[in-house]
Amino acid sequence: MSEKKRRVLLKLSGEAFGGGQLGVNPDVVGNIAREIAEAAGEVEIAIVVGGGNFFRGAELSERGMERGRADYMGMLGTVMNALALQDFLEQAGATTRVQSAIEMTQVAEPYIPRRAERHLEKGRVVIFGAGAGLPYFSTDTVSAQRALEIGADVVLVAKNGVDGVYTADPRIDPDATLIDNITYQEALQRGLKVVDSTAFSLCMDNHMPMQVFGMEPSGNVTSTLRGSELGTFVSN
């Protein structure tokens, strides 16, 4: 029997794909893909991608659009990001599969947990698109759900512009300090908005650990996938 590989669920925000701009920045996505591909031979990697570089359902609904429709538009944005990441991962030498929670068989497999696990066992990187396929669910919550369903060891939340969980927003409060370890209960009580409260609660209720880390500098993604203790560890 070969030793069981580490299995992780990596959450990438849509903003990371756009480099702060609307759409996909090929240089940024190429760099992310190379870092993921570097660890793909040693670690079983599943990825949930956000769509904030295209659409944000909650923001669109605040401007008058019906929330359900706005969320579906956001889900389609995540599929575009999933396909972009797939392309750059394959250029970097990784074998990939995209699974979509909304059926679109010409570009992606349907989301089937057991099939996703089989891909991971075969060394393929699995990218989950279209969120949960349902409105009112953030990709943070989907990351927790997918991690639980595929039996991941940890949820890795890659952040742009911040390197972990802080006592306050470091971009606003100069006295904010990085927290190395925190419990889900404490993070919820203190209202630390790193991921949404539903994702925190889902992980807490099912004893799924979470690691929040910064994507910069280069190499952080690879080393965190391999097990480096960067950023903040959130657990029960």
Record the SSE blueprint.
Elements lengths: L6 E6 L1 H5 L7 H14 L4 E6 L7 H6 L4 H25 L4 E5 L8 E2 L2 H9 L3 E5 L9 H12 L3 E6 L5 E2 L11 E2 L1 E3 H6 L7 H9 L4 E5 L5 H7 L5 E4 L1
Parallel strand pairs: 1-2, 1-6, 2-5, 3-4, 3-5, 6-10, 9-11
Antiparallel strand pairs: 7-8, 10-11
Structure characterization notes:
The strands form two sheets. This protein has a nine-stranded mixed β-sheet with strand order 4-3-5-2-1-6-10-11-9, sandwiched between helices. A two-stranded antiparallel sheet has the order 7-8. The chain contains nine helices and eleven strands. It is α/β, with parallel strands linked by helices and 236 residues long. Helices cover 39% and strands 19% of the residues. The mean pLDDT is 93.
If you average the pLDDT, what whole number results? 93
The major sheet is characterized as:
9 strands, mixed
**Strand pairing plus helix content: what structural class?**
alpha/beta
Give the CA-based shape. globular
Radius of gyration: 17 Å
Which spans have pLDDT < 50 for at least 5 consecutive residues?
none
**SSE pattern, N- to C-terminal:** EHHEHHEEHEHEEEEHHEHE
> What is the helix tally?
9
Strands in their spatial order, largest beta sheet: 4-3-5-2-1-6-10-11-9
Q: Specify the helix fraction band.
A: 25-40%
CA(first)-CA(last) distance: 31 Å
Number of strands: 11
- Percent of residues in β-strands: 15-25%
